Amino acid sequence: MRITFLGTGTSQGVPVIACNCEVCTSADLRDNRLRTSILIEGEGRVIVIDSGPDFRSQMLRAGVQHLDAIVFTHEHKDHIAGLDDIRAFNYKQKGPIDVYADLRVQAALKREFSYIFEEFKYPGIPQLNLHTIGLDPFNIGKINFMPIEVLHYMLPVLGFRIKDFTYITDAKTVSDKEKGKIKGSKILVINALQKQSHISHFTLDEAIAFAEEMGAEKTYLTHISHRLGKHGDISKLLPSYVELAYDGLKLTV
User: 20 to 30 Å CA-CA from 114: which of 168, 197, 219, 226?
Assistant: First the structure.
């Protein structure tokens, strides 16, 4: 199974509009970060976790020719705003895309994209099949997803474990019960927004401490803001088992 990081930035992306800091003006392409999302390819399936505002650009950049499903972590705009662009896949594949979301996220999709769900189907609107998920494991084809609930301040967000790979974004606190689902993963992806304290995201130090506690062979940091620092500088500060993810990074799991 192959994982591609489609985006590793926080809600504003990097560079941030009108910002002239050293990160936003960096010549290092690893400092250019679209909104957070990953692509999963394996077992005859092509799946995206989250379709943020950069979904179209991400699909074009990654050369994605077919899409089976989108799985949503939560309803914030930087994770759902690109849903309309599944239309291209509807047209090419001549059918709907499977969308997996909990009931709260489904309510947000119906509010933000009301035209998709109206009784009168305007020609050319996105076509999707909604599948309700919760905390029970579910399958997409032969790929098994184990949901992991974390808290993004007060908002529950779903991460997912797939075999020995665990993907979590927008986490600030994780219960002991949910930590038990993560332990034993060989590869962990976790958010690390910035160095300074934040109400709803792991800081760099918190993410490193979490990585150490979970004990994965390798942890990759994502959902990164320009406040964290330049990729090259921060990489020098990390323990050997932690790396900064970057857009376009590919893993085999």
Answer: 168
Q: In what order do the strands lie in the sheet with 143-152?
A: 138-140, 143-152, 155-162, 165-167, 187-191, 218-222, 242-244
pLDDT for res 207: 98
pLDDT digits (tens, 9 = 90+) for 45-61: 999 999 999 999 999 99
On the CB side of 95, how many CA atoms lie within 13 Å of its CA?
Answer: 9
Evaluate whether 212 touches 177 at the Cβ level (below 8 Å): no
Burial of 112 from C-beta contacts in 10 A (0-12 / 13-18 / 19+): middle
Q: What percent of the chain has pLDDT over 90?
A: 98
Give the pairing type, strands 128-132 and 97-101: parallel
Residue 145's identity, in one-letter code, is: F
Q: What is the mean pLDDT of the chain?
A: 98
Q: Is 29 exposed, middle or buried (0-12, 13-18, 19+ CB in 10 A)?
A: exposed
The answer to whether 53 and 77 are in contact (CB under 8 A) is: yes
Q: Give the amino acid at 183.
A: K
Q: Is 129 left (phi over 0), alpha (psi -120 to 50) or beta?
A: beta
Q: Residues 222, 144, 162, CA angle at the centre, nearest 5°?
A: 30
Q: What angle do CA 179, 183, 187 make, to 5 degrees?
A: 115
What is the model's pLDDT at position 119? Answer: 87
The first and second tokens of residue 134, run together, are 């919760």
> Can you give the pTM of this predicted structure?
0.97
DSSP conformation class of 176: H
Whether 37 contacts 48, CB under 8 Å: yes
